[in-house]
Structure of SCO5389 family protein:
Amino acid sequence: MSLAVPPALLEAAERGSVDDAAFVDCVRESLPYAWQTVSQVVAELNTSDDDFADNVIPPPGEAERGQLLRALASDAIRGGLERHFGVRLAFQNCHRVAAFRPAAVDSDTYRRFVSTRGQLLNQSPELRDC
């Protein structure tokens, strides 16, 4: 299970629409390493003039790697994080999380990052098993 959903949030989902802030709070509580990593990348972006910031440090263990995979492989979770932080997230190699300014999504930098070439160039022998 990727999220520890509080009963009130599950009840809200069963009734219909879910408050985005409540969903994001559930993500923050359920996937603390993923939340911390995305928060750190967004903070770095917000303190720079660059179009993006990224994390190149692999997670300390499989549990943390699993959190990143669950957070960024889920359209709903990734979308919630993007809306909350006001960024576009990109992901490579089970750990490289990047946050892009929305205006940069149509940039060469973004296209290079999300390209097949970018993925291949970001490979290394120690990351093949991630």
